[in-house]
Write a structure and sequence with these properties.
2 copies of one chain form a homodimer. The two termini of chain A are 41 Å apart. Chain A has 13 helices and 17 strands. Chain A has an 8-stranded parallel beta sheet with strand order 2-9-8-7-6-5-4-3. A 6-stranded antiparallel beta barrel of chain A has the order 10-11-14-13-12-15. In chain A, a hairpin with a 2-residue loop joins strand 16 and strand 17. The first copy, chain A, is α/β, with parallel strands linked by helices. Chain A folds into 2 domains: 130 residues, Lyase, Ornithine Decarboxylase, Chain A, domain 1 (Beta Barrel); 204 residues, Alpha-Beta Barrel (TIM Barrel). In chain A, 32% of the residues lie in helices and 25% in strands. The interface between A and B is large, with 61 and 61 residues.
Chain lengths: 385, 385
Amino acid sequence: MPSPTLDAMQLHDLSTPAALVDTQRMQRNIERMQSRMNTLGVAFRPHVKTTKCLEIAQMQIDAGARGITVSTLKEAEQFFAAGVTDILYAVGMAAPKLKQAAALRAKGCALKIIADSAESARAIVQFSKEHQQSFEVWIEVDTDGHRSGVKPDSDDLITIGRLLHEGGATLGGVMTHAGASYDLHTPQALQAMAEQERSLCVLAAQRLRAAGLPCPVVSVGSTPTALSATQLEGVTEVRAGVYVFFDLVMANVGVCTLQDVALSVLTTVIGHQADKGWAIVDAGWMAMSRDRGTQKQTHDYGYGQICDLAGQPIEGYILSAANQEHGILSREGDAPDPAIAQRFPIGTALRVLPNHACATGAQFPEYHALTAGQIGPAWSRFYGW
Amino acid sequence: MPSPTLDAMQLHDLSTPAALVDTQRMQRNIERMQSRMNTLGVAFRPHVKTTKCLEIAQMQIDAGARGITVSTLKEAEQFFAAGVTDILYAVGMAAPKLKQAAALRAKGCALKIIADSAESARAIVQFSKEHQQSFEVWIEVDTDGHRSGVKPDSDDLITIGRLLHEGGATLGGVMTHAGASYDLHTPQALQAMAEQERSLCVLAAQRLRAAGLPCPVVSVGSTPTALSATQLEGVTEVRAGVYVFFDLVMANVGVCTLQDVALSVLTTVIGHQADKGWAIVDAGWMAMSRDRGTQKQTHDYGYGQICDLAGQPIEGYILSAANQEHGILSREGDAPDPAIAQRFPIGTALRVLPNHACATGAQFPEYHALTAGQIGPAWSRFYGW
C-alpha cells in the first residue's frame, strides 16, 4: 500500500530540476472534464500536445475520450504507432506536409486534416488526385478572431466545402478553437464565449448542409470554454488540452484552483543574495520555459508559484526571474524577505507550479509520476517535429 | 564542390519547423572570438549550453578553445563521454548534486565546481571528507549585481577561500559572469562593464592571494563583455556562449549584425488572415521558444525576424505573435500589409532569426547544418537534466 505521507527521501533522490505529475490531481481533472462532456452529451477528443505522453493519453482514453487531437504530424505518428487511430491534426494543412499525412493514412491511421482556405483545399485535392490518396478534411472556422479559420458566414466556407467534396475528399465536418477565451476571467464572459464558439461553429455546419454538403462533425473547444459551456446543442465533440494538468494561467482565467494544478517542477535552492531577499534555485527558464502567460493577468506569478515539497503553495513566494539554469525565488511585491536564507537554506527542495503547463512540460524529456507521495515510473514524452 | 547557390529543393524536403545552422557564419563567429582572445592574451573556454552539440563544441576546440563551460551536470557527462575532460560547471553547487559531480571526477573528468557562500563551501568540504573525494572549486564573484556570487571586497570571499583550502579542496580560482551586460547597447557602456567585470574579478583574486590562498585562475565573461573588453590584465581566461550563433538580442546589444546570426528556424506558410495582414506559419513558440528578449530593447522583433529561404532578412516583417504550433507573420508597426497572401502564399518556405539562440536551439532535437546553400548532416543536441 502506498503511504499517504510524502516520501521526501525519494524526491531528494531525483536530479533537479525534474517534472512531477501529481497523478491524483490529474485523474481528478480528467474525470471532471469527461463527466462534463458526458452530461452535455458530446464526445470528447483531448488535445495531447499538452503532455505528448502515451501513458497520460491512455488515461484520457480509458476515462472515455474518443480519439485525440494533435498539433504536429510527429505526434500523430507516435500516437498511431502506440495504437491510437482516430487522430485530428488540428493545424492548417499546407502542401509540403501532405506526403507525411498521406503516409499515415496509407498505414491505416484515420487521420483527419484541416483546411481554412480555398488555396489549401485546392492543394489537398490536387495532391489526392496525383497520388490516389483520399483525405478526410475538416474545415476550420474562426469564431473569435483569434488566429486562423474561415468566417462562418462567409462565401469562402461554402467554396472550400465544395472544392473538397467535389474534389473527392471526405468532408468530415467543421472545427473551431476559441483561443480568445484565455484572455477572459469571469464566468459570465467565459459562458458568453463558449456560446459564441458553439453557435458560430453550428452556423457554419448548418450553412454547409443547406448547400447540400455533408458535415457530420461539429467540433469546438478550448479548456476555458469546455469548462464553461452550459449547453452544446448542435455540437458533436469538444476538444481541450491543458485541463489535464491545469496551470497558473488557467487559475487566473478561473477554471481551476492552485490545488488542481497537477504539473510542478522540483527544484533545489543553490544560493542566496540575502540583501536582495533572493534565494537562487536550479530551475531557470530552461526548466520553466520562458512563458510569462500570467504577466498580463490579474495575478502575475513571475515564472511560477513556489510550493513546499508536498506541493502546497507557500503564499507570497514566486519565481520572480529566470536565467537559463538559475531561478530567482523572492517574495512577491516590493518588500524583500530579509530572512530568505533562513527560510530556504541551500539544499532545500521545493516545487514550482508553472504559468503554462504545455510550455513547461515541453522542456523535459520525462515526467515523474507522483501518487500519494510516492514516486512511480518515469513517463517519457517526445519533442521535435 | 558544394554549389554557392541555395538548394531550395533540399530545404523544401525538410519537415518544418526545423533548426538550421549556417556553418560559414558560425565558423566566422568562432574565429572572431578566438582571435580576439588570442590577441588579448587569455585562454578561451566556450559555454556549450547554447548549442549542447558535440560537433559544434569540437569546432570551438579545434579553433583554439581550452576546456568548456557547462550549465548542467548532464552536459558535463555528455561532453566528458565524448572526450572533453576540462569542464567548468558554472552553476552554484548545492549538496544534492555533489554525488553526481564526484562520480565524474572519479572517472577522470577534470571537473571544476563553483561556490559562492560559506554554506556551500562547507557542504563541499564535508562531502569530500565523508567520501574521500577531492574537488577543484572556483569561487563565484558578483561583479554586476546581476544574479549570484560573493562580493569581491567582502569578508565572505576570504572566509569561503579558507574553508575550501583548509578543508582539502583545490582552490582553483575565481570566476564571474557580467550578465547585466545584456541590458546595455552602446560601445562605451559595454567597455565600461567589461572593465568593471575584469577589475572586480582581479580584485577578488588579489585579495585571496594576499590572504595566502592560491588563486591561479581568473575567469570572466559574457558574450557582450568578451567582445568589448579592450584589455584583460590579470585575467587568465574568458567564457562566452551565445556568440557562436548570435541572435537578435545580441544584435540589439550591438555586438553583431543580422548577417552574423547563424541559427534560424525554417518554417512554412500554412494560412492567412488577409484582412488583418497576417500570414500563419508553422513556427509557433514550440519552435521559437517563448523568449521575448528583444521586447524591452531598441528594436522589438516580436518572436523573430523573417528572412527569405537564402537567409536574407525581409525588412519590416516579423513573427509578431506565437501560439504553440502557429506563428503570426506580419508587418512591424500599425500598418498591416494588405497583400500579405500574395507576398507569402501558402507553402512558402521562410527562415526566422531568433531572439535568443540558447532558448530557440533548446526546442529542437537536432540542427541541420547548412553550408554554402547545401544541407549537410543533422547534428543532434541533447536536453534535460
